[in-house]
């Protein structure tokens, strides 16, 4: 099945952008959904991404929110964008085998977009659990300046 085309291209092109980010590669992030107004990012939870109590480190959740929000914004704004700000609320400790960040565009204009994200912890045989929620924005930038 061919990729859906968005303002910033296809899922395949978005995945190429993700793997061009060394920090994303370090975390093992992968983009699983990239359709107009929506992006989903997954991060396999490894021991080196956990904090002292065995939960996913808050910085990993913040990364997941930031990048998924920005990818969702890119589906309506195009690829030359940066995050303008973000708020993140931790709901419960995240543990399991995987983090899944689901971001959607709330409002998208010509140069800015507002997005929301829910982050779930996933265990192999259990229902995903909401562990954090975020809201943030992105804006178009001129890379030639």
Structure, described:
With 145 residues, this protein is of the alpha+beta class. Helices cover 24% and strands 39% of the residues. It has 3 helices and 6 strands; from the N terminus they run H-H-E-E-H-E-E-E-E. The protein has a 6-stranded antiparallel sheet with strand order 1-2-4-5-6-3. The longest helix is centred in the middle third of the chain and has 20 residues. The radius of gyration is 15 Å and the shape is globular. The model has no long low-confidence stretch (mean pLDDT 94).
Summarize the structure.
With 145 residues, this protein is an alpha+beta fold. It has three helices and six strands.
Task: State the distance separating the first and last CA atoms.
Answer: 38 Å
Shape: globular
Approximate helicity band: 10-25%
Count all strands and give the number.
6
Largest sheet, spatial ordering of strands: 1-2-4-5-6-3
How many helical stretches? 3
**Topology pattern, helix = H, strand = E:** HHEEHEEEE
Give the helix/strand class.
alpha+beta
Mean pLDDT, to the nearest integer, reads 94
